[in-house]
Amino acid sequence: MIIHFVTGNDRKIGEARIACNPAGVEVIKSPLDISEIQSDDPQEISVHKAKEAFKLLKQPLVVTDTHFSIPALKGFPGAYMKYVVDWFRPEDFILLMSDKHDKTISFSENITYIDKSGIKKFSKQFFGKIVNEPRGTGNSIENVAEFEGFTLGERREQGGFSHKPEDYVWSEFAKWYTDK
Q1: Is 2-179 a domain of CATH 3.30.930.10?
Q2: How confident is the model over 2-15, as a mean pLDDT?
Q3: Counting Cβ atoms within 10 Å, is residue 96 exposed (0-12), middle (13-18) or buried (19+)?
Q4: In degrees rounded to 5, what are phi and psi of residue 161?
Q5: Contacts for 50-56 with beta carbons within 8 Å, 24 or more apart?
Q6: CA nearest to 64, candidates 150, 135, 158, 162
Q7: Residues 77, 105: contact at Cβ < 8 Å?
Q8: Distance (Å, rounded) from C-alpha 12 to C-alpha 139?
Q9: What pLDDT score was predicted for residue 9?
Q10: Is 154 helix (H, G, I), strand (E, B) or coil?
Q11: What is d(CA 54, CA 82) in angstroms, rounded to the nearest whole number?
Q12: Which DSSP string do the residues of 67-105 spell out, in sequence order?
């Protein structure tokens, strides 16, 4: 079985393959230039991207949208993460959190599958904390967002991905897709 994953992001492709390949699902990287709407709702963004991609590719595919939410900052950066991580340094996030008691951060991954018969959505949320010192490599928030004792940047430095493959929302997708 194959699935086209519309992204140009090699990290996202790697995460998808780690979870899907053991289920017998081959993930094909299919980068397309599609518009991304602005919304506070990551699932709305994901569904829009899926519909736009399906118009171009005309075959079953998946897209993702991920976002971070910091409750002490009223959900910031939310669905605007793609832009904020380019604007902010790790130290900017640390400064924003310096007077906050609640250092919680959540990471949400949303997958949208589309084919000619409809749309199926998958979502998973992970909870961690903002650390006081940047650690690792990658974009700004990856160096300050810690999950299970490591920042995402440290996981990247170690050659890994953000979570264990069985914890990815991709595992849920792969099971559904092979049973479909």
Answers
A1: no
A2: 92
A3: middle
A4: -115, -175
A5: 50/6, 50/112, 50/113, 50/114, 50/119, 51/114, 51/119, 53/6, 53/114, 54/114, 54/115, 56/32
A6: 162
A7: no
A8: 14
A9: 86
A10: helix
A11: 22
A12: EEEEGGGTTEEETTHHHHHHH--HHHHHHHHTT-S--EE
Domain range list for the chain = 2-179
Q: Which residue has the tokens 């951060």?
A: 105
What pLDDT sits at residue 6?
Answer: 97
pLDDT per residue as tens digits for the range 68-124: 999 999 999 987 888 898 999 999 999 999 999 999 999 888 999 999 999 999 999
Element (H, E) at 118: strand 118-130
Specify the 3-state DSSP secondary structure of 156.
helix
Q: Which two tokens stand for residue 141?
A: 């928030």
